[in-house]
Amino acid sequence: MPTSSCSIEIPVSYETLNLPHVKISHHPGGTSTATPVMILTLNRPEKYNAFTSEMANSLTEAYNIFNVDSRVKVVVLTGAGRMFCAGSDLDVGFGDGQGSAVEFRDMSVVPGGRVALAMHRCHKPTIAALQGSAVGVGMTMTLPAAVRICHEKSKYGFVFTRRGLTIESCASYFLPRLVGYSRAMHLITTGAVYPPSRKYFGDLFTEVLPDSGQVLIRALEMAEDMAKNVSPLASSMSRALMWRGPGSPEEAHLLESRIFHHMIGQKDYKEGVNAFLEKRSPRFEVDPGEKSAPSYPWWPSTDIALGPIVLKPSKL
């Protein structure tokens, strides 16, 4: 990850951005400005969306912008063509192993960890719509997502050990927490690919659909519902409580009480209650980047880059 400050300029339209190997679309289509639901597509269908440094940089940049853009509420991540992602582009490779580990971490040809962290740190939740098969980094990049939907006839796997490699993209943190250590050990040590119905995946895929064409449609339905009915602030803080929670019930009680106290003082709480009582859809307007709890982040900070400078357009 870069070690110097970078600027983030929020575009009026994401469809004007030139991000190599990635396509960003507004949803619904035909709009000239950003929408609450954004579609982020891995866009190398001729290479089965094989992962490259350009794709990693594009995904990281997109998530960094989504994070600070109050217009965006939910991100749907999918792939173009038959496969979601065939893993790293082995025609490019990973270099020769020379140089320092820090340089490799920050500037390697396949920096999947930067993508996983950008997705994880983004206040806006991601729904991963795996419309086709995915292996390697094609799987690990989706682990920080809030929801994963897939195709029942496609195959998925963590094939690193079959390529003489270890897992990456923070998978050693996310995967055991999502599926349990026993299943994670099986998936990693076999390095095999399986249909999503196999028990080794546990509940990693929350929905498995029979038609690949249904996957993105279902993900967008879910994203629309979330964007319309879920407070971005409450969602962001709740996910942080689960991923960054303390180690005991007593500590969890103390932390949750502080965050809950903060939330009942926010406009979203009043709006959510009034909308329920008045039997109407809520109009949540609180930006989680601006109204996070005073104690956020409540965990010890690990610095891997300097914070960005946000440059907002004069008129959105």
UniProtKB/TrEMBL annotation:
Stated family: Belongs to the enoyl-CoA hydratase/isomerase family.
Protein known as: Uncharacterized protein
Pfam annotation, one family: ECH_1
Database matches in PANTHER family: ENOYL-COA HYDRATASE_ISOMERASE FAMILY PROTEIN (AFU_ORTHOLOGUE AFUA_1G01890), PTHR43684
Lineage: superkingdom: Eukaryota
Organism: Penicillium ucsense
